Amino acid sequence: MRLILLGPPNAGKGTQAKKMVNELNIPQISTGDIFRKNIKEGTPLGVKAKNYLDEGLLVPDELVVEIVNDRLDQDDCGGGFLLDGFPRTVVQAQALDNYLEQNNLNLDIVLNIHVEKDVLIERAVGRRVCKNCGATYHVEFQPSKKEKVCDVCGGEIVQRDDDKKETAEKRIQVYLDETQPLIEYYQSKELLATIDGQQEIAKVTDDIMKKVKEIS
Ligand code: ADP
Ligand code: AMP
Prior knowledge:
The chain is an alpha/beta fold. The chain is about 50% helix and about 15% strand. It has helices at about 15-25, 30-40, 45-55, 60-70, 90-100, 115-125, 165-180, 180-190, 200-215; strands at about 1-5, 30, 80-85, 110-115, 125-130, 135-140, 155-160, 190-195. Helix 1 packs across helix 9 (about 200-215), helix 2 crosses helix 3 (about 45-55) and helix 6 crosses helix 7. The longest helix is centred in the C-terminal third of the chain and has 15 residues, at about 165-180. The mean pLDDT is about 95.
């Protein structure tokens, strides 16, 4: 199964992706995670991407498309994949279409997680991530058992720089300008399913899995 999780920053894509890949047995491909890993390791890709992430801007399409195509070529994507945070522009969506066409593949569904702006900001300022393993928490909605300590690996839990209010607001504006047009793009291909992302985490998962089962 080949799926896309679409939605604004802090809609809950990563949270849902983690649950879905366990059930569906396909890899989660998060471009944000790929960039953060490369930045942490100081690779040439990380050096190129860092300023964009710090500023809450999108990394240029050519760079993103190249890393995603390379990732999709890997063996573990043979049985399908879940894209989280890609595509984010129409150019990226077209590049993905080209990749799929060249490989005789098609998308099964695009799940659009809808969340209003004030809730997105609330989620951003309260989001915390493990510095070591990347697990995601929220100070109020999804707290770790022990303050500032990751439940999964015991690593330190911190706030992402781009979750500070000002950058989070900028990222939402970037979403509205660059990514929101993809809703229509995938609607016109009859691939879009919209999910109410303002429900409890487990209910959002249920709604997503219902849609996925409908097309399986
Ligand atoms: P995204 O990957 O779309 O940027 P995340 O999955 O990281 O978003 O979620 C953003 C923040 O919101 C996290 O702190 C997460 O714990 C919290 N969160 C995710 N889904 C929900 C939900 N349904 N209700 C409340 N908080 C949520
Ligand atoms: P995310 O973890 O999905 O919130 O992404 C964090 C940051 O990584 C974004 O604000 C962008 O700077 C960058 N990024 C992630 N995915 C993409 C993408 N598909 N296109 C451009 N930039 C991206």
